[in-house]
Amino acid sequence: MTALSRRRFIRIAVGGAAIAALTGMPAARASTPLIRWKGVVLGAEAEMVLPAADAGRLVALTLAEIGRLEKIFSLYRDDSALVRLNRQGHLEAPPIELVELLSRAEAVSAASGGAFDVTVQPLWEAYAAHFSRPGADPEGPPPAVIEAALARVDWRAVEVGPAHIRFTKPGIAVTLNGIAQGYITDRVTERFRAGGFGNILLNLGETRALGAHPDGRPWQVATGEGDGANPLVDGAIAVSAAGFTPDAAANHLFDPRNGKTAKHYAWMSVEAPTATEADAWSTAFSLMPMARIRAALPGTAIRRVRLRERGRAVTITF
């Protein structure tokens, strides 16, 4: 989620067939009237399956919460807390949400041996500038450009506390790509839970289920790449797969340790209790060999990892 773009409302689709694409289940089985809201939020397509009677109120609540958090996390708003942090190198009295999110990112960075790192923004900028040029080398920027960017990447150089956030090295810049969509999805989910709602499915860049399907069965979430339908109850699924080039020689998953992009897997999905965890770990695991993924799992709350490696599908559970 490098860009938190302006939201664009598309439509609210009413009726049985409207929920099939997101849930993967024949909608006619639903005994509770459901509505599927579709739109673009945080720069990505979004959907929510909501109880018809409360859909209008829940959509309004969702968009209000996203708008509030966008003012904190956006890289494309001059007045956002994140932009001010990157510009100044410090932020006094930071929003509690930014403190919480950066603290959770720090924990994943430590647990993943640095595979997850929110300070990869200089690498993003180097790769984006490279691929914006006609005839760009599909392997990515020259080594000297990557080395210069890497000198400004270090998750340990972000000092986080309730009174202030500051960078302890020059040139550091944070992107919340790989964790903020999950965090925002969780915040909206918890707002729904606090309001007494359940049996809701959200996809706000990452997918989170609040409870089960209204009929009592698990939600069925299709994650693509021939993965089939994934049953989901009161949990989250995040997927990592994208590229700068059509042949995926380079992609947007940067290894903060060497400046290269993810090469281990063509596709990755992670199921966890929260979308924040699933989002961050799907990024980290994409940069880790399978042996390291298996070794890291006992220290996480991850329920299941699915990946595609050299044409074969692998499922890892713990």
Q: Which percent range fits the helix content?
A: 25-40%
Biggest sheet strand line-up: 1-2-3-7-8-11-12-13-14
Distance between the termini: 28 Å
> Structural class from helices and strands?
alpha+beta
Order of helices and strands: EHEEHHEHHHEEHEEEEEEHHEE
State the helix count.
9
Gyration radius from CA atoms, angstroms? 19 Å
Describe the structure.
The protein is an alpha+beta fold and 318 residues long. It is built from nine helices and 14 strands. It has a nine-stranded antiparallel sheet, covered by helices on one side. A three-stranded antiparallel sheet has the order 4-6-5. Helix 7 runs antiparallel to helix 8. The longest helix is centred in the N-terminal third of the chain and has 19 residues. The N terminus is likely disordered.
Strand and helix layout:
Layout: E1 8-14, H1 20-23, E2 34-41, E3 44-51, H2 55-73, H3 81-88, E4 90-92, H4 96-111, H5 121-131, H6 143-150, E5 158-160, E6 164-167, H7 180-194, E7 200-203, E8 207-210, E9 219-222, E10 229-232, E11 236-240, E12 267-272, H8 275-286, H9 290-296, E13 304-309, E14 312-317
Antiparallel strand pairs: 1-2, 2-3, 3-7, 4-6, 5-6, 7-8, 8-11, 9-10, 11-12, 12-13, 13-14
Helix pairs in contact: 2-7, 5-6, 7-8
Keywords:
318 residues; single chain; nine-stranded antiparallel sheet; alpha+beta
Could you write a compact summary of the structure shown?
This protein is α+β, with helices and mostly antiparallel strands and 318 residues long.
